Amino acid sequence: MFSVRYRYIFIVLLSVYSFLNILFTVGNKFFDFQLESPYLLAVLFLVVWGVWESNHWVSKQIEKRTPAYQVHPLILLFLFSLLNVAVVASLSLYLLYLVLGMPFVFNVTHITLLLAFGFRVNLFLNCVNAIVYFMDKLKRAQIEAAELKQQSTEARFQALRNQINPHFLFNSFNVLSSLIYKDVDKSAKFIDQLSLVYRYLLNNQDKKLVTLEEEITFIEAYLYLLNIRFGEGLDVQIEIEQGKKKLFIAPSSLQLLIENAIKHNVLSKKEVLHLSIKTAGDLLIVSNNLQEKIDKEPSTQVGLQNIKSRYLFLTEVPVEVIKTQDSFTVKLPLLDVQQV
After folding, report:
1. Were 218 and a residue from 113, 200, 237, 334 both cysteine, which residue would form a disulfide, CB within 3.0 to 4.6 Å?
2. What is the DSSP letter of 175?
3. Strand, helix or coil at 87?
């Protein structure tokens, strides 16, 4: 508070306020003799200015040496400020005597009155300083808490993104190793689509959002790999409204949903897994017929939980999961980037 940029304005205002208050209560007879108003205002200004500036200097010294002290800086400042008041009041009285042409004789009444005024001013300034000190400390604590919360949020979000490490890579290599001897052209295209898939994953691993159009392009390459692997056992229908392609979703959300469907359901020529990906309003709806495996793989909590957790960071609209006896449906919010 003592180092406030416009402190001289406050010093003048406090001096004038004190001057008017004294005039209203005791008039010009602040001491035991009549003192003209300009001199009274001047001596009051000297005391206020001297106490403020000396406390300003002391606070800067304490701030520089804070680690060396065991006492709270506000207590230290107040203790030193008492000495400041004594020095400032004595000097102000001496200057008043000097200007008035009075001999400098120690007068208990005069010094007591000026000390009393100086101590009241000092107490007021220290109280305001304490309020400013704790308000500033609270503000810094709130900023630090907000920064820590943001860092924690980012860390958790990054952890969720890092979970997206498609385990189909090994399956893809197995398919490729068998395909390369049977059909060179198809294996070349397989490699090309595989590179598109991983280029997308690498390019978007640090993004919170991608356009639906980008995700669909990625999914089309991803589905090519799955179709080579599962053949007629997998049927995917994609119906995306043109106007919705510029809206955003969390990257790799569709991939996780497709992986989840393949992981928990039977795929064969006789039992085809039908997947539907379509838009409806501001939702992307992904559904599949339900033909669950008898021996289910243990859940790794990466799929649906990952998507739900990531969307909690992005929007208040929840991810909706609907499971019936015959189908499994997930509704993902399509986001306008301005609303995130």
Report:
1. 200
2. H
3. helix
Cα–Cα distances (Å) from 305 to 87, 253, 321, in that order, read 70, 11, 11
* 69 within 8 A of 55, measured Cβ to Cβ: no
Tell me the sheet residues that pair with 276. 237, 287
Distance between CA atoms of residues 48 and 52, nearest Å: 6
CA–CA gap between residue 255 and residue 301 (Å, rounded): 15
pTM for the complete prediction?
0.52
Report in angstroms the alpha-carbon separations of 156 from 102, 160, 207, 299: 76, 6, 14, 20
State which CATH number among 3.30.565.10, 3.40.30.10, 3.30.1330.60, 3.30.200.20 fits the domain covering 181-339: 3.30.565.10
Q: Mean pLDDT, 10 residues at a time, over the chain (340 residues)?
A: 72 83 75 79 87 84 68 82 87 85 80 86 85 84 71 52 54 71 77 82 78 92 86 92 92 86 88 94 94 70 74 87 93 79
Please give the single-letter amino acid code of residue 187. Answer: S
Domain boundaries, the chain: 7-160, 181-339
Cα R_g (the chain), whole angstroms: 39
